[in-house]
């Protein structure tokens, strides 16, 4: 017991209108908003705690963790002070406040806690100029479902006060048990420590110097915490040397991962998920309980579907967001789930778990006595290869994205769009199916609408357009392209990375060169008139205004006021409004500068009679 009883205070406050959690991602905002806006963090924490029924809250156990980013320590202290004031009986906290997202999920399930609060913005940058986030996981260990998130949001809009114990201080660096006596009832804290080094080095015997960047830093050492080829260049270059046979990268809170093989062989997240699914017999857990089914987010490539078909188990296609998998796993329908955004997990938790996925890969390597590349190429030979890439257009105004997606939905869901053909170079794509994806939960019948626009072509290629708000107050439009190659002779082509412009276009996965056609086609679709030409193809012309932002289509760098040197001619119209007319058919070399709205005025371009 430390000192005399600590008082509980009630502090008046006023609500904010922007504290709606974004599904499984929780509340993500610029760090400065949490740090500098009066009561911004306490308001949301109180809303989270108040969403738990009072009878369940009093004396319960909760888990608190963070990814160690800037402002995490101060925020953890606030969470502790408010949890105590709201009657939480015990907190399990990571040493220095650090616990990965999958670790929080595991602890919640293991000790049957009421839930957990995770201070993370996942793969978003940290630091004073970066982003911060608060995520709430419920009693099953998974992200708060929509009904809970909606409840939190409703509370946040009417909040008038919050409870806190401002004099409560704990030593987050000290392992062990810390007890405090409050003016209301409050029970002990326990603190748990780091585990990556413990598991890979201490338990599995990997050399200590093989685990790098393991010291938590508030700004992540100036590095981006997203584990992909763009940001893990140090690991990629080390693997390219050929000295190492296996490489893995994790994000800040441990729920995302990336796998590299010898000579820098990259395993895409969709391929990784499919390979794990096809080799679950290498894992004792699954040999004992069997495989019930698989789950993937809709944008994730359909590589998993082919494995599921061969194993004669169901595969569930859900919206993006791990919370949709929780119901499937709770009901015993799903054993393995994954997303194209480097997340994989199984029914042992209700979160994606990067370290678990890496351990599974090591188990597969040990069981098959093959290297990473050999395992993946054997998989392609059996199931075919799914080439896949993703573009992110980031930092958009929400109003802008609303108009983009509204008009695009009207175009692709029009019945006349089915059967249209689009010529891109020597390839002709025929539209077989389009829809605005909606998900009906097979467990409780909940319907989730408008989860992305899908265009599926007759050759099984796909284009997906999806709006994401996971980056905070600004919005992101994600474009996904997928192409299937069954012929083994097409599996050995060296993947090429599509080029992007400024930091706003980020290529998240490697893609085969032929994916250029699909990405070019995505622009053709966006700009397409509703009526095809006599031969079924669409020639098109678009007008785009610019003012503030910047955007570049895949290809070489060309100024908007000039014509393309390596492709079709570009027409330029000078006017006081700065309109730029672009003939984009078979176009891979155009740059558009200072685009304010990706809002297109469509018109048919007369076909040449030559």
Output the structural class: alpha+beta
Q: Looking across the biggest beta sheet, what order are the strands in? A: 2-6-5-3-4-9-8
**Name of the CATH architecture of the largest domain:** 2-Layer Sandwich
Number of strands: 30
**Could you name the CATH class of the largest domain?**
Alpha Beta
CATH topology call of the largest domain: TATA-Binding Protein
Which percent range describes the beta-strand content?
A: 15-25%
Tell me the distance between the termini: 90 Å
Q: Which range best describes the helical content: under 10%, 10-25%, 25-40%, 40-55%, 55-70% or over 70%?
A: 25-40%
- CA radius of gyration is 25 Å
Q: For this structure, what is the CATH homologous superfamily of the largest domain?
A: Alpha-D-phosphohexomutase, C-terminal domain
**Major pleated sheet:** 7 strands, mixed
Written overview of the protein:
By secondary structure, the protein is of the alpha+beta class. It has 16 helices and 30 strands. The strands form eight sheets. It has a seven-stranded mixed sheet with strand order 2-6-5-3-4-9-8, with helices on both faces. The chain has a seven-stranded antiparallel sheet with strand order 18-19-22-23-24-17-25. It has a four-stranded mixed sheet with strand order 14-13-15-16, sandwiched between helices. A hairpin with a 6-residue loop joins strand 23 and strand 24. Mean pLDDT is 74; it is low at 183-196, 495-514 and 527-610.
